[in-house]
Write a structure and sequence with these properties.
By secondary structure, this protein is an alpha+beta fold. The protein is built from three helices and six strands; from the N terminus they run E-H-E-E-H-E-H-E-E. The protein has a six-stranded antiparallel sheet with strand order 2-3-4-1-5-6, covered by helices on one side.
Length: about 140
């Protein structure tokens, strides 16, 4: 079974600015099909954007407190390499995360296989989050 890569974003799933940023980053346009979240293909990697069913206690920050996925990050960007190339999948996810950070608009959490928080971003002025001893990674 292949590992999954996710970025959770504090924006609505079909936020026009978020969708546009991703199209620019990935060099394509979203495909909208009935029964699936919108996606962009870049080579063998499919990048899906939509809502999710994860709960606030499904993964923890490195310091131990829960990442509030449901309450603070309603949008999930999922990266799937159909050829099973984990490095390519991670590289594309890392580029999308870097561009999200550069945009400076939305808090985001970059997660490997729902097992480990790889990075996070909190735009300046978005208030105290998470708990003082459990800071996001960036």
């Amino acid at each position: 079974m292949s590992r999954q890569t996710f970025i959770f974003v504090s924006a609505q799933a079909r936020d026009a600015d978020l969708m546009h940023l991703m199209e620019q980053t990935l060099g394509g346009t979203f495909t909208f099909e009935e029964g699936t979240d919108p996606y962009i293909r870049t080579g063998t990697v499919a990048v899906y954007v939509g809502e999710h069913d994860f709960d606030d206690d499904d993964i923890a920050w490195p310091g131990g407190s829960d990442v509030p996925l449901r309450s603070m990050y309603p949008t999930m960007i999922e990266f799937r390499d159909t050829g099973g190339d984990q490095q390519r999948q991670q590289a594309i996810a890392a580029q999308v995360f870097a561009d999200l950070k550069s945009a400076g608009r939305w808090p985001a959490v970059y997660i490997d296989d729902m097992q480990k928080v790889l990075d996070s971003y909190q735009p300046p002025g978005n208030g105290p989050f998470p708990a003082k001893n459990d800071q996001p990674l960036t």
